[in-house]
Amino acid sequence: DLSSVTILVPGKLNPDTLDTLKKTFDVEHVLDRDVSKLSQERRNSVRGIAMMGAVPADMMDALPNLEIIANFGVGYDGVDVKHATSKGVMVTNTPDVLTDEVADTTLAILLMTVRELYAAEKHLREGRWESEGNYPLTPMTLRGRTAGIMGLGRIGLAIARRLEAFGLPIEYHNRSERTDVTYRYHPSLESLASSVDTLIIAAPGGAATERAVDAKVLKALGPDGVVVNIGRGTTIDEPALIEALENGTIRAAGLDVFENEPHVPARLIALQNTVLLPHVGSASRHTRGAMGDLVIRNLTNWFQGQTPVSPVAESVKAGILPRR
Ligand code: 8YV
């Protein structure tokens, strides 16, 4: 009987997902994420977590009967998976269901950035087309560009397919070379950056790529360089990016993610050669709904003694199984 299984929701969650969860499970919603203020008895009863954002080690340690963490999102850099794995706690995420949405958004950001579509739209809305005339011709174009993808996973590949349709040559950097694509592989990010002029970041984030896109990489990308980031803000050295945009080391950037969300540095906002979006890559009702359904299916499966639909690689590797 799932209604006797307690699921902790620390912080905000998609409202439809929260509603469905409440209809299925016994939900403890701790909006300020402070689990320590729950009674010991209540903490003991928690067997699952449904969340977006972060689950640090101390939150897991405060819940002695925790079995599963169901992350709302494909990226789970906020979850201390190493700690979860060491405790035999399953972690699931929401791959696939958001791939096309995020790839669509990426192409939109790229076009907005190189063709100044936001500024051009503003020109019309402010009545300047009629009063001043045409919006100036854009110095940048997608024509003749070469795309370099950092992180050729599911989302990176969906972006690559779209870029192919746009006629762009594609190269990539990944943890390891893929055997199922013919795109040129670069074993280092700097090598990729020096070979292309359009760097698209679709890497998952986390310690391994923290601030990997640094001053050296940006310099290698060069003065016509465009950076698009739809992965994680932590993958870019944000102060170095701001420098590079201010002094012309690169040309422009389109960013959906930032180092310290929802804070966006004022210097970044002051720049005209940036397109800045509030982490909307997957943010349609359709796709967030599908992600929520997957979170719930992962939890439902688990508490019915089955394997979850989408366990993360670390949990699979560790052979973590339901407890019944
Ligand atoms: C999530 C995301 O909605 O899937 C991801 O990794 O970044 C977004 O799609 C986000 O994690 C929750 O706010």
Q: Would you kindly provide a written description of the structure presented here, covering whatever features stand out?
A:
By secondary structure, the protein is α/β, with parallel strands linked by helices. It has two domains: 2-95 and 285-317, NAD(P)-binding Rossmann-like Domain (Rossmann fold), CATH 3.40.50.720; 99-276, NAD(P)-binding Rossmann-like Domain (Rossmann fold, 3-Layer(aba) Sandwich). It has 14 helices and twelve strands. It has helices at 15-24, 40-45, 57-61, 81-86, 99-115, 117-125, 128-132, 154-165, 189-195, 215-221, 238-246, 266-270, 285-303, 313-317; strands at residues 6-10, 26-30, 46-51, 68-71, 90-92, 147-150, 170-173, 184-185, 198-201, 226-229, 252-255, 274-276. Strands 8-7-6-9-10-11-12 form a seven-stranded parallel beta sheet, sandwiched between helices. Strand 11 (252-255), helix 12 (266-270) and strand 12 (274-276) form a beta-alpha-beta unit. Helix 5 packs across helix 8. The longest helix is centred in the last third of the chain and has 19 residues, at 285-303. The two termini are 14 Å apart. The model has no long low-confidence stretch (mean pLDDT 98). 2-keto-D-gluconic acid (8YV) binds at residues 52, 72-75, 98, 281-282.
